[in-house]
């Protein structure tokens, strides 16, 4: 997994994912938005992280969907990660509503095989900056689709991320699920430095 200009990615794969809440534990909440245009793999990204599965058929999201997963970081610390998936269809992209929910970080996805989704990244970053009340970490995630013609090279995406002053990673959601976990680990390291990982 490569990034443009920061090496703060943590691997949360080894953290034990649990359901529910154990009394006596320090519990942290992490709210992340996953945005991007259709066909970028947002739903697959979330499914891989929360359910460890890759969907076999594509069903477009038509609204904002919220999914959560609880991670046991240590014997006394757990983090509940909420992922807010914003529908990719243009008519449903309404980030204004989303950002009243206390979002702490944003994953901006594009498909390396789909130039239109890459070209829209500056617009999404600008829109996010406009409507968020506070500055939050943003991570540009390029989803590499094996078997497709991946038109956007890594360096081009890394250069764009540098211009936008955000970090960048290239992942393959289907074949390398550990990289999905590392994206979540990135936000834990940025937003929860007090959590001893």
TrEMBL record:
<dbReference type="InterPro" id="IPR001806">
    <property type="entry name" value="Small_GTPase"/>
</dbReference>
<keyword id="KW-0342">GTP-binding</keyword>
<dbReference type="InterPro" id="IPR050227">
    <property type="entry name" value="Rab"/>
</dbReference>
<dbReference type="GO" id="GO:0003924">
    <property type="term" value="F:GTPase activity"/>
</dbReference>
<dbReference type="Pfam" id="PF00071">
    <property type="entry name" value="Ras"/>
</dbReference>
<protein>
    <recommendedName>
        <fullName>GTP-binding protein</fullName>
    </recommendedName>
</protein>
<dbReference type="InterPro" id="IPR027417">
    <property type="entry name" value="P-loop_NTPase"/>
</dbReference>
<dbReference type="GO" id="GO:0005525">
    <property type="term" value="F:GTP binding"/>
</dbReference>
<keyword id="KW-0547">Nucleotide-binding</keyword>
